[in-house]
Fold:
Amino acid sequence: MVIDSLGYRLQWPTESWNVWYYSSGKRQSCKGVNLDRKHESLTTPAMQPSDKQAAQQRVDEVQAFQRELERLQSAGIVEIKPDAVDAVREYHCALIQSLKASFDIDADSRARQLSAGMRIASLLGAAAMSAGIFFFFHQIWGYLSAFGQMSLLLASTLGTLGLTVWIERRDVSSYFTQLCGTIAFVAFVLNIVMPGSMFNLYPSPYAFLLAGVYGFILAYRFRLKWVLVAAIASSAAFLSAFTVMMMGASWSSANERPENLLVIGSLCFLLPLAIRHRRCIEFVPVYRISGLLLVFIPMLFLAFWGDMSYLLVDQSRLEVVYQVLGFVGTLAAIGLGIRQQWLETTRTAMVLFALFFYVKLFDWFWDFLPKYLFFFILGLTALGFLVLLRRIRDRILPRTGGVA
Structure:
C-alpha cells in the first residue's frame, strides 16, 4: 500500500510490520515488532518505558496514531488489509494493557479525568490528615509527660515514614503514596517545632534546613511533587535567613529583605540545567516554576516598597528599576519558554507579567478613575494581550508546523 501524496509506504507482512518513509530521496526503514509471538517484545527494555510519565506518553502516541489512521481510512487516502489492521490493534491493545498493569496509566480520556480527581482527593486528604494530626497533638498534649510527648513525636515520624515505605511497595498508582508521604513530612515538621515550644527554646533557622533536607529525601525517594515544593520553600527560607544572619541581623528579619530570594530563585530555575533528572523528569517543571516565583514575587514587592532593598539609593528610582526588571524579566522568560518549549515556564511567566501589569495599573488609576472605567481599561488591555499573542502565534506556527 502506497501513499504518494504523503511520501510514506506502509507494509504489514504476515509476521511483522515495517514503516517505510522517504528522506532526501532515499527509502528508510523502521522495523516493527513480531505480532505472531504473543507480544513477547512488550517486556523488553527497548519497548518498556522507564517511568509512569514515559508510559503515559507512549499510550497517548498510540491513541493519536489510531485516531489518525481511522481518519485516513475514512477519507479513502489509504487502504489497508483488515488482517493487518487487526494485528496492529491487537498489538496496541496488549501494549496498553501491559503499561496499565505496570504503571497504572490512563488508558483513555475518561480515565484521565478520574485521575485528575484522584490527585485532587489525594492532596485534600493529605491536608486534612495533616491538620487532624496537628489538632490531635494539641488536644492530648497537656495530658502527657515530657517523655510521653517526645515518644509520641518520634513514633509519629517513624510510623508515617514506615507506612509510606509499605504503601509505596503496593501502590502502583502512587496516589496513596503521595498522601502518606505528605503526612510523613508534616509529622517530621511537628517533630522539629513542638520540642521548641515544650522546652522554651529560641527559634532557629536551622529548623528550615532540617525540613528542607528531609523533604528532598522524601520527594526523591517516593517522587512526591508537593513535598518537593515544600522542601524548596524550606530551603529558600533557610538560605535567606542564613544570609541575614551573616550580615549581623536577626534571622527573623529575613522577610524584610526579599532581595535574598532573587539569587536563590535564579539558582533554583537553573538547577535542572546543571543536574539532569533522568529518573525524576517530572521534577524539572517544579524547579522552573518555583524559581520564577522566588525571583519575581520578591521583585514585585521591591517594585512598590523600595525601602526593603539593601541598596542605598533613591527609593522612587529603585522602585522604577525593579518595575522595569519585572516587565523585562517576565517577557524574557516567556520568550525562553517558547523557544525551549517549556510550557510551564511560558505559562508562569505570562501570569507573572499580567500580575506586574495589573498591579501597576492599579497603582496608576485606582485612586482617581471611576471604578467602572478602571475595569473597562483592564478588559481592554486583556483584549490587547489576546490580539498580540495571537499574532505572535501566527508568526511562529509556520516554523514549527511542518513535519520533521
Observations:
- Residues 1-47, 399-404 have pLDDT under 50 and may be disordered.
- Strands lie at 2-3, 8-11, 16-23, 26-34.
- The chain has three domains: 2-103, 118-256, 258-368.
- The longest strand covers residues 26-34.
